[in-house]
């Protein structure tokens, strides 16, 4: 007998041996929480948003605003915040829409495609965070130094000014620090979303192979 | 209203729970993972149930949602046990029903299936469940021709494992 036919026969035979769950046992399962991939992507994006929002609130106390006022960056900071929150809310809305769009009644191919679309949104979001963080840090550094250079009165200018080499070192350290910081953020996202999406990507490639 | 829906759903699932158990059998290899996947399937079915409303048979609909959960939505946890001992799982083969050689063949077949990828497992599962190629292609979102070609490849693969 052919191997698969034998298997089919055995498969049918075992149908009777399957342990059965009771009505109550199944009912209890409805109350448990889902651990599905899509749900976690959505939850993580919300947590992330809260994390950054809390950091800003914690950071931006009265003193901070006073300092911003002093170096004439208050307006700029407020505008950056507004734009930043606007864009972040837009992304959360996208995540939510993706989450709603994903329906377990679609075909496997369509379902995976929708989940991978969520992944693309995640990628854009990470890209946005990295670029905006870099830009804002650079702009602030520039303004801060500019302010100090023009408004700090020192008696012995020679003592406080940088030689070209020192400038170069300073810029190098600044950029290096920024790169390390951005690298950590990037790694963090790679790890979290990578874990969630690795197997899915594999299955998608498998389905893609079928289409060729 | 909600209570009524809940009751209806649990009744349906209780009646057709074999489908989910069989999918868990194909996709997991220990009892803990089996229970995990079964639970996730139940939750996904319940989440999708308001959209169901009897446009198809409950069982047909359930095949699709349950398989989708196993292939895409379920977060597989890494378990330390990679190979499995059939006697410890409910794969248990009743020795008296088959001769030794057949029993050996079946053991090899079942472990061969465990080596397949998620999509191939789905194909084998639907084949074992006597689904036709139209059902298979609709569930996976590929064409019927592709389903047929892929199924034949999987069959050959399994045959080769069995008769090297």
UniProtKB/TrEMBL annotation, chain A:
It comes from the Bacteria. The chain crosses the membrane at residues 37-58, 78-96, 125-145, 165-189. Keywords: Membrane, Transmembrane, Transmembrane helix. The keyword Transmembrane helix applies. This is Uncharacterized protein.
Automatic annotation (TrEMBL), chain B:
One of its GO terms (biological process) is DNA-templated transcription initiation. Gene3D superfamilies: 1.10.1740.10, Winged helix-like DNA-binding domain superfamily/Winged helix DNA-binding domain (1.10.10.10). Pfam families: Sigma70_r2 (PF04542), Sigma70_r4_2 (PF08281). It comes from the Bacteria. Keywords: Sigma factor, Transcription, Transcription regulation. Residues 14-79 form the RNA polymerase sigma-70 region domain. Residues 109-158 form the RNA polymerase sigma factor 70 region 4 type domain. One of its GO terms (molecular function) is sigma factor activity. Belongs to the sigma-70 factor family. ECF subfamily. PANTHER family: RNA POLYMERASE ECF-TYPE SIGMA FACTO (PTHR43133), RNA POLYMERASE ECF-TYPE SIGMA FACTOR (PTHR43133:SF45). This is RNA polymerase sigma-70 factor, ECF subfamily. The lineage of its organism: Bacteria, Pseudomonadati, Bacteroidota, Flavobacteriia, Flavobacteriales.
């Amino acid at each position: 007998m052919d191997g698969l036919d034998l298997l089919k026969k055995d498969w049918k035979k075992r149908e009777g041996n399957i342990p059965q769950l009771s009505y109550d046992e199944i009912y209890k399962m409805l109350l448990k929480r889902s651990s599905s991939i899509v749900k976690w992507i959505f939850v993580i994006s919300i947590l992330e948003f809260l994390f950054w929002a809390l950091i800003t609130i914690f950071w931006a106390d009265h003193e901070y605003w006073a300092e911003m006022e002093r170096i004439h960056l208050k307006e700029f900071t407020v505008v950056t915040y507004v734009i930043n929150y606007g864009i972040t809310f837009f992304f959360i809305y996208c995540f939510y829409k993706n989450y709603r769009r994903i329906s377990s009644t679609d075909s496997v191919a369509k379902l995976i495609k929708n989940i991978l679309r969520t992944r693309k949104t995640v990628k854009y979001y990470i890209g946005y965070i990295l670029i905006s963080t870099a830009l804002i840090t650079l702009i602030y550094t520039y303004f801060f130094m500019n302010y100090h250079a023009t408004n700090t009165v020192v008696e012995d200018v020679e003592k406080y000014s940088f030689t070209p080499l020192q400038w170069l070192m300073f810029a190098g350290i600044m950029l290096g620090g920024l790169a390390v910081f951005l690298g950590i953020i990037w790694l963090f996202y790679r790890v979290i979303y990578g874990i969630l999406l690795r197997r899915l990507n594999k299955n998608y490639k498998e389905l893609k192979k079928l289409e060729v | 209203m909600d209570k009524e829906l809940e009751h209806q759903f649990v009744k349906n699932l209780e009646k057709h729970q074999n489908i989910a158990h069989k999918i868990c059998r194909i996709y997991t290899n220990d009892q803990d993972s089996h229970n995990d996947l079964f639970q996730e399937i139940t939750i996904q079915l319940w989440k999708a149930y308001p959209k169901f409303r009897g446009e198809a048979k409950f069982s047909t609909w359930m095949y699709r949602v349950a398989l989708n959960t196993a292939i895409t939505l379920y977060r597989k946890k890494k378990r330390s046990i990679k190979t499995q001992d059939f006697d410890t799982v409910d794969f248990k083969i009743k020795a008296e029903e088959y001769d030794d050689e057949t029993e050996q063949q079946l053991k090899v077949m079942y472990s061969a299936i465990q080596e397949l990828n998620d999509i191939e497992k789905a194909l084998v599962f639907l084949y074992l469940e006597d689904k036709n190629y139209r059902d298979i292609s609709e569930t996976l979102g590929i064409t019927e021709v592709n389903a047929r070609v892929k199924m034949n490849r999987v069959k050959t693969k399994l045959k080769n494992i069995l008769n090297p």
